[in-house]
Write a structure and sequence with these properties.
By secondary structure, chain A is mainly alpha-helical. Chain A has ten helices and no strands. Chain A has one domain: MetI-like (MetI-like fold, Orthogonal Bundle), CATH 1.10.3720. The N and C termini of chain A lie far apart (about 60 Å). Classes of the chains: A mainly alpha, B mainly alpha.
Chain lengths: ~300, ~300
Amino acid sequence: MTSTQRARLSDHVATGILTAIVAAILVALVAIILYILISGAGKAFDISFLTGRPQQFKEGGGIGPELFNSFYLLVLTLLISLPISLGGAIFLTQYAPPGPVTSIAKTAIETLSSLPSIVVGLFGMLTFVLSMGWGFSIISGALALTMFNVPILVRVIQQALEAVPRDQRDAALALGLSRWEATVHILVPRAMPAIITGVILSAGRVFGEAAALIYTAGQSAPVLDFTNFDLTSASCPWNVFRPAETLAVHIWKINSEGVVPDLAAVSTGTAAVLMICVLAFNIIARLLGRAMERKVTAE
Amino acid sequence: MPAMSKRGIERRGRLITGSCIALVVLLVVTLIFMVFSRGLDTFFKDGISPWSFLFGTTWNPHQTGDDGAALVGALPMIAGSFAVTLLSCLISLPFSLGSSIFVVEIAPGFGSRVFRPMIELLTGIPSVVFGVVGLTVVVPWIRSWAGGTGYGVLAGSIVLAFMILPTVTSLATDAIAAVPDAYRDGSYGLGCTRWQTIVHVVLPSALPGILTAVIMGMTRAFGEALAVQMVVGNAVQMPRGLFTPAATLTSVLTMGMGNEAMGTMYNDVLWSLALVLLFMSLVFILIVHLIGKKGAARHD
């Protein structure tokens, strides 16, 4: 065999191996998702499981409060983290002077994004739960999740703003708009589809986060009474000072305590619900992003 | 609202957005400061020597050893954390590197249309879901051929390998895609095959980026808490093999922090574990920075 033939052969072999690797990853990914969905399907589509209250020592517990808590925490987290991230990203893309200030800011955000979420959770426990005296509560959890979410959002929004064609910004500035006006009236609306996509994708990650929550939002889910609007009562769903176990925390807790008799069913059922929500976030993000992109570019 | 001058508007915009950034910086600095100050209590307040903490192999903070000092050796957890981190990187590296080569060099269209969205989906799977899959699939599978409980370093590493796969893959893909096409054209012009081009031209020049990708994967693996805690077995002993239960910094923190009251010695030592965890993340970030600087210098 000549060296050329050998080179050609190894090229074919390498291509084959690389193709097999990619195929293996895709198969594994689909297998994981299907496994969770199928093994949890029996519970995940059972309305009494979705609305029932969790049980400790007997079978048939539900995840009603956890499901509500997860969404409530997500909404609160986005309400807090979105304005901060938007402001931060605008500062970094529009105003940040090259120099130490900017590099400190960038390093801080990068550091925050690579901190283990359990460390963020412990900091949250120290600051919000203990120092502020808010106890294990929704507000403590939302603030911890904000710290976890802000670096992700800043990066997403920054990329979205930088992807806006430069001439649009230049044209706005040439027409006499200040940088702030150009940002608010031209850049942000134009970048909105990408921002929305990124925010919803990050919402999926916030929704499934547990390590930052076990010591901030707590591991107990008081029974909720949706007719109770007394914001100081523990059973009022909207009270931000009550403890709130989420779906992800629930999965972890029941597995580590191991006192629920139908543990496997409840655990895979909850995982399936969590997975369905994350998949839904993914699909909604892409569809909405595409639809908005069409609208913005057609105008 | 009265009309504001352009300068006023501009100043207000800078102030609002600048204070958002300032808030984030302040939070990060506070976090680092507080974890350090709590974590150092073990040594300054409780008088435990840093040496016996970092290199002690017995973890039993409720009891004291022969010399009367508390048994707070953290080496089993530190070793456990490094073991699962390195092993998970070894497992996932061939897959992530192979697939990122594939989607850049062989099938770019497939890469952006199918593979990238799928990898993003993998990023979105919550870590507790990985933990459940680990508990119900990986642990029984290991038990079936290796005996024992199935819990241990290998189970933790396999679960982590899946979790860091998207991080490493997407960063490595970016690094390989950033290699200028002129390099490839030069190599093809000399008559090299695609595989020769990849091995001798593309990978060497993407190396700093690939290293960054691996370190970022290690950062994630080192700091991941719940999925590891669910499958690693949670026995605080030096990891003796792949199949015996072990513990990591994160797993001990996750389980212990709720049980011990603030201010007790046990609690202080847990904060010291958190400090080690934080310190290692900072080291990983520093390494990424150094690689970035070196890589930038090389391209100039």
